[in-house]
Amino acid sequence: MDFRFDIIAHYIPVLLRGTAFTIGVSIVSIILGSVLGLGIGFGKMAPKAYFRWPFHCYINFFRGTPLYVQILIVHFGVIPAFYGSTNVLMTSFVALSLNSAAYSAEIFRAGIQSIDPGQREAAVSLGMTQFQAMRFIILPQAVKRMVPAFGNEFIVLVKDSSLLALIAAPEIMYWSNTMKGQYLRIWEPYLTAALIYFILTYSLSKLLNYIERKV
Amino acid sequence: MEPMISVRHLHKSFGTHKVLTDISVDIHIREVVVVIGPSGSGKSTFLRCLNLLEQPQEGDIIIEGTSLMAKTTRINDIRTELGMVFQQFNLFPHKKVIENIMLAPVRVRKWPVGQARQKALELLDKVGLREKADVYPASLSGGQAQRVAIARALAMEPKIMLFDEPTSALDPEMVGEVLAVMKDLAREGMTMVVVTHEMGFAREVGDRVLFMEQGVVVEEGDPEQLFGHPAHERTQAFLSKVL
Ligand SMILES: Nc1ncnc2c1ncn2[C@@H]1O[C@H](COP(=O)(O)OP(=O)(O)OP(=O)(O)O)[C@@H](O)[C@H]1O
Ligand SMILES: [Mg+2]
């Protein structure tokens, strides 16, 4: 079997642009997802059951259905409803952020609930408000414990962003599909895509190990 | 004289489980009140109601004339007047010893950092741990951790100190150093409510002892009377087991 490096070389510029798209959409989604997730996580810890319920449903919906389906719903349903027409870029950010928010919410909730209740009690008995206790005592300790789970979520997000090829978002998988279509070759496009994802996730996990050691 | 803390007809349940039944107690300024009783009798719950870590269902707690149950009472302000020391210390593990002590004065009392640090160092001197100012709590022994926890509570300059079995989690050889700090405080005139199994401390330092069982105050009196001539059978039975 021959392996044609020349067609890979030919596609390198677009694949690099695809990689940039994948990285960009993953970073934005992990950030938006964790901000949103923090709110949803707190919502799910609310004392009143009826208040928790919508957050509970949100998390269960996004964790319990395939991202594939979520992308299609956002692309053909949600974005047109708000924006008037489909938009690949919007779908990419919105679908991944909403999905990531559900997982982030659970990471925040688990992290916060893993802190000994005595910490909050000590803080409020010194006169701190609930907010100050969260801000100065609970979150700093919880965030440390969340780092591995967030790292994991980020890696999953990078890989799952490949599903955006479905709606022709110009990311890595989309371009390797194009490459396959143009040359009717299997190994070159898909092995190249696999290698790029591997390099991304492997560097990310190294970086995360470093951060874990730091905090 | 008006009591510093007046607890009136306090009732507390967890779900259907009744833990405190009709507790009424007055605590006066400079008084050291020791609460004793078997495990599960509601001693911690009683103490935790005093700074509303637990919300009672009925009755009232009046601290220096302010009702804790009144809707207008700002509970955070009340809590700054009550120092609390826990069995498990509950130091903040991500903060150095001195930061543990300075945090609330800076964030709650809005003291300048310099003033808070000054106060923290004085308190560390008082509990004999100045050289530990810049270490993290994880490197302290249990006795040292509890002394830091006491300093942390004192940094807010509370009018009343609440202790929930402050020596129960300690190795026996460390109990003395913590009790010594508490005795100093009592001598200086701090108003204290102390839940403890240390009967020697209760006798020596307590002005009044409350014996609780199954959520009621069975008997109260000065230590000589309560330990020497307990009036109730249940008090006698308990004391015969622990003394
Ligand atoms: N948060 C809670 N939820 C439900 N039940 C509780 C809670 N806290 C305490 N209880 C129950 O209330 C009762 C009194 O508990 P409390 O901790 O006040 O007793 P205690 O006298 O301090 O005992 P110990 O000497 O073991 O500390 C116990 O039966 C306990 O199981
Ligand atoms: Mg207790």
Automatic annotation (TrEMBL), chain A:
Subcellular location: Cell membrane
Residue ranges of the TM segments: 20-43, 64-83, 154-175, 187-205
One family name in Pfam for this protein: BPD_transp_1
Keywords: Amino-acid transport, Cell membrane, Membrane, Transmembrane, Transmembrane helix, Transport
Gene3D superfamilies given in the database record: MetI-like
Membrane topology qualifier: Multi-pass membrane protein
Cited InterPro entries: AA_ABC_transptr_permease_3TM, ArtM/GltK/GlnP/TcyL/YhdX-like, MetI-like, MetI-like_sf
Domain (ABC transmembrane type-1) ranges: 19-208
NCBIfam families: HEQRo_perm_3TM (TIGR01726)
Protein family membership: Belongs to the binding-protein-dependent transport system permease family. HisMQ subfamily.
Full protein name: Amino acid ABC transporter permease
Lineage: Bacteria, Bacillati, Bacillota, Bacilli, Bacillales
